[in-house]
Amino acid sequence: MSTDPSYALQALIAHLEQHLAVVSQSRGSADAAIDTAFGSLADAFEDYEDALYEQYSELLPFTIPSDDQ
Fold first, then answer.
1. Where does the pLDDT of residue 12 fall: very low under 50, low under 70, confident under 90, or very high at 90 and above?
2. Which among 30, 37, 42, 45 could bridge 22 via Cys, Cβ 3.0 to 4.6 Å?
3. What whole-number distance in Å separates Cα of residue 44 and Cα of residue 25?
4. Average pLDDT over residues 14-38
5. Is 61 contained in some domain?
6. What is the greatest pairwise CA distance in the chain?
């Protein structure tokens, strides 16, 4: 089952907005909500990129940093 890129884009935008809300309300770098928002945003980004690739064979010019780097 493939995801519609438009739907995935809307989900990505919602996660970007949620990330901004969490960061703007943060109590510091140790705030666990920031890590949670980052993970959700990263997942939404990957879902959008997967949907773009499935539908149009296109990738985005960004990568998600990992703890391995």
1. very high
2. 37
3. 21
4. 90
5. no
6. 41
